[in-house]
TrEMBL record:
Record SUPFAM superfamilies: C-terminal effector domain of the bipartite response regulators, CheY-like
Organism listed in the record: Streptomyces coffeae
SMART domains in alphabetical order: HTH_LUXR (SM00421), REC (SM00448)
UniProt domain HTH luxR-type: residue ranges: 157-222
InterPro entries from the UniProt entry: CheY-like_superfamily, NreC/VraR/RcsB-like_REC, Sig_transdc_resp-reg_C-effctor, Sig_transdc_resp-reg_receiver, Tscrpt_reg_LuxR_C, WalR-like
Protein name per its UniProtKB record: Response regulator transcription factor
A Pfam short name: Response_reg
Record PTM 4-aspartylphosphate, positions in chain: D61
Recorded superkingdom: Bacteria
Sequence ranges assigned to domain Response regulatory in this UniProt record: 11-126
PANTHER family hit by this protein: TWO-COMPONENT RESPONSE REGULATOR
Length: 226
């Protein structure tokens, strides 16, 4: 897999309050062919620089001074919905993982991961695939199902849900099962880009903002086959 996105190098921003760690991650990414467009050492600085640099991927620590990482995630994803956030944290606490995902993070990697694991995670995050340290993916899918079991807010005043095409529904069903975009492309014998387009179209039709909301929508309607 190349470190390019739409014919250009994948742009990355690294946020961590420890300068040596931040610089090391940025250096590893640069040497691997990524374009590190910005770094930041605290929450408010991260929000400002992310909005200005508009990277493809934000590698984000959660424990930041000034503004917690989850709040940074919420703000930058709201400003740039196409931005992918990969949390890189020392914490493997389930509550931290779930809070990060609910805030819009695409993936969650522990700092104990190897450099190769990190590079692969950034590549996959840029492609839109969910990336989790082994053992955490099942936790996140379990939380999706728990959320789907909660009563939905009343929608009496909301318009009738838009109709998805047969292929969009098929892609949505596989997303809800936890398959990556690459796996979906292989299963349906279509390109990775086509899968991304179907997901983006579905998000737009349903007025959803990220994969977390999309999976919850699918599970609420029984599309995950669970």
């Amino acid at each position: 897999m190349t470190d390019h996105h739409e014919g250009r190098p994948v742009t990355v921003m690294v946020v961590d309050d420890h300068p040596m760690w931040r610089d090391a991650v940025a250096r590893d990414l640069s040497e691997a062919g990524f374009d590190v467009v910005a770094t930041a050492g605290d929450g408010p600085q991260a929000v400002r620089r992310a909005k200005a640099a508009d990277p493809d991927v934000l590698v984000l620590d959660l424990n930041l001074p000034g503004l917690p990482g989850v709040e940074v995630c919420k703000e930058v994803v709201a400003a740039h919905p196409q931005l992918r956030v990969l949390v890189l944290s020392a914490s493997g606490e389930h509550a931290d993982v779930l809070e990060a995902v609910k805030s819009g993070a695409t993936g969650y990697l522990l700092k104990s991961a190897s450099t190769e694991d990190l590079l692969d995670a950034v590549r996959r995050t840029a492609a839109g695939d969910p990336v989790f340290t082994p053992g955490l993916a099942g936790l996140v899918l379990g939380e999706y199902r728990r959320l789907a079991g909660e009563p939905a807010p009343t929608a009496a005043d909301q318009p009738v849900a838009p109709q998805l095409t047969e292929r969009e529904t098929e892609v949505l069903r596989l997303v809800a099962k936890g398959l990556s975009y690459k796996q979906i492309a292989e299963r349906l014998v279509i390109s990775h880009r086509t899968v991304q387009n179907h997901v983006q179209n579905t998000l737009g039709k349903l007025q959803l903002h990220n994969r977390v909301e999309l999976v919850r929508y699918a599970i609420e309607r029984g599309l995950d086959g669970a």
